[in-house]
Amino acid sequence: MMMMMEGPYKYTRDGNGKVSRVIRVGTRKSQLARIQTDSVAEKLKELNPDITLEIVAMSTIGDKILDTALSKIGEKSLFTKELENALERNEVDLVVHSLKDLPTTLPSGFTIGAVLKRENPHDAVVLHPKHVGKTLDTLPENSVIGTSSLRRAAQLKKRFPHLVFKDIRGNLNTRLKKLDEKEDFAAIILAAAGLKRMGWDNRISQILWPEDCMYAVGQGALAVEVRARDTDILEMVSVLHDPDTVLRCITERAFLRHLEGGCSVPVAVHTEVKNSQLYLTGAVFSLDGSDSLKETMQTSVAANDKSSNAVDERVQRVGVTADKISGEAQDSAERLGVDLANLLLSKGAKEILTVARQLNDAR
């Protein structure tokens, strides 16, 4: 096997003299990130048997700072910055992320070239073995629940006032270990998607439906980030786009961006595509959940065939490039997010989020 560089591209030649392009895929080092990246790499290899894929794993700030709540670090691109730096330096050709880790505004020169079919976007309760068979409702008074998410804590404090919520950090393996091996937590809250991808479905004691806890923007979806100018790579990954997931995530990201929300404020969503209608429910909460605003709006995302053929220009919508999906439907999705954010802002969302941010900073 021989490696060659030609311009920014890397090639390999096997024993039979066959040359194939090497596509370098960047990922975080955690087991979940590797599983997610491998699943994307497999799909790409199936669709492009002639390429060679090389996985490049690296640690990010978010992986290194484990003693501080994410919302306190105050950095928007905690899990993405190092990966984007590698993309910029041409050390990798594409990066696989959990979409919920990607800020709603990407640095210039980057774009999300694929949003894959969404896994279950809801949150899940994982109980300490001694509480097996219980639910959040039936856990004893003052049981401690671990979550480092302001969004989860705000909604669950309001819904389950008999419980106490404390920060827990670390990757999935670390959190489960903290839960099982100590007596600090009665349960922890994690994204169902991550548990499923790790093959740990059997640890899910309860799925939290929207009436208990709405999910984070982009939760459960994987995104492939590329250099916006790399048209060949953009073309290659674009077939991985799942149209419904793209529309749902565009509307969610537009909602969050217009609210100016990030990790440090409790913002939650729920979306659905049904009969060519896109439904978006969005909410903002005070840190203790006592103050909240929640509204639902919908729009048609039926593709008008005439317009979908004409989508050739590389338009980004909240960081997403999806040339093969009706531009009209994407515009409607983006507008829906902005409209719902405006509705909540008109009812006082700004004040709720400003107080939440200040209180969180002061903790």
Task: Give structural notes.
By secondary structure, the protein is an alpha/beta fold. Helix content is 34%, strand content 25%. It has twelve helices and 15 strands. Strands 1, 2, 3, 4, 5, 6 and 12 form a seven-stranded mixed sheet that branches. Strands 9-8-10-7-11 form a five-stranded mixed sheet, with helices on both faces. The protein has a three-stranded antiparallel sheet with strand order 13-14-15. Helix 9 (243-259) packs parallel to helix 11.
Structural class assignment: alpha/beta
Cα-atom Rg, whole angstroms? 21 Å
Question: Which spans of ≥5 residues are poorly predicted at pLDDT below 50?
Answer: 306-312
Task: List how many beta strands DSSP finds.
Answer: 15
Based on the structure, what is the oligomeric state of the protein chains?
A: single chain
Q: Which helices and strands occur, and which strands form pairs?
A:
Elements: E1 2-6, E2 9-13, E3 19-28, H1 31-47, E4 52-58, H2 61-64, H3 70-73, H4 81-88, E5 94-98, E6 110-115, E7 123-127, E8 144-146, H5 150-159, E9 164-166, H6 172-181, E10 187-191, H7 192-197, E11 206-208, E12 222-227, H8 231-238, H9 243-259, E13 267-274, E14 277-285, E15 292-300, H10 305-309, H11 327-346, H12 349-362
Parallel strand pairs: 3-4, 3-5, 8-9, 8-10
Antiparallel strand pairs: 1-2, 2-3, 5-12, 6-12, 7-10, 7-11, 13-14, 14-15
Helix pairs in contact: 9-11
